Amino acid sequence: MAKEIKTIGVLTSGGDAPGMNAAIRAVVRSAINKGLKVKGIQKGYNGLINDEIIDMDKTSVSDIIQRGGTVLYTARCLEFMTPEGQHRGAEVCKKHGIDGIVVIGGDGSFRGAQKLAEAGVNTIGLPGTIDLDIACTDYTIGFDTAVNTAMEAIDKIRDTSTSHERCSIIEVMGRNAGYIALWCGVANGAEDILLPERYNNDEQELINHIIEGRKRGKKHHLIINAEGIGHSTGMARRIEAATGIETRATILGYMQRGGSPTCKDRMYASIMGSYAVDLLAEGKSNRLVAFKDGKFVDYDIDEALAMTKDIDEYEFNMSKRLSM
Ligand code: ADP
Ligand code: F6P
What we know:
Rossmann fold, four-stranded parallel β-sheet, 11 strands, 18% strand, elongated, binds 6-O-phosphono-beta-D-fructofuranose
């Protein structure tokens, strides 16, 4: 028989992402609606181990849906990667009567959730990362806001690049994944898009492309470089030396992680938060909420973590054709 859940905990873990607050709000309010108690676990698995746990009611999530970051704070916690740390986490859950947890984070956080499930705490994961690098889902909380923030910043860089007839390398986040770079590259009309999944390290090809563009009268040359390739400053120096065209590197950095979430991130995060509570109330554990092929669905975390994902070939080829 499925375990009856009376009290649930919610935590955010790994890098923060805009929309995490909307997910927290949805978890808290959906749970209260079902007559469950809710505890907020602060600073991810760190706060779990250190017993940094607060009671949450419907007003503790008032006025947060529009805010970036996470009101529960987030952290990375090495200790939770050890059996002792995981045991301590499960003990703290027992102490607070927490029989179910919603973990909002990325792949690493879900590995932690797996361990909690093994220790007898029902766990549900929500994909919260700007990187869009979780294989089982076409949507992750925060990606939409991050690409819109980066896109607006890159439009501004384009203005100054054109005025000075410069080449600009703009480095966007994404860890080892190129989704932010691909989306911004297309949306900003970049001349080159460098993705970790596809880049062949042929800088001469890049240089030739810049020179050809200049010969055809292009006033600027925008290169969107993914964090997973990096080295934007050195690349700019080498391009300037080889082409004679003034070249600047801009690393957008954490501005992509902050800021007020878009409508899509608020709405999808709300649906996912509510879905997670439905799963817990049904006695489910070790599941991950995802958005796949136009629908909200859930997967076993073990299966989800074994899946792989790559840049869509059609989108990649299209990005090449459009940036000619
Ligand atoms: P993300 O969740 O964004 O992928 P991390 O990879 O940094 O971020 O993972 C976040 C946290 O999840 C880690 O600091 C750690 O506490 C926990 N975690 C990661 N991997 C494991 C693991 N194999 N076992 C237990 N906990 C893990
Ligand atoms: O996962 C989100 C992300 O911003 C990645 O794009 C980036 O590689 C990483 O987190 C940076 O992490 P930190 O917060 O440790 O600088």
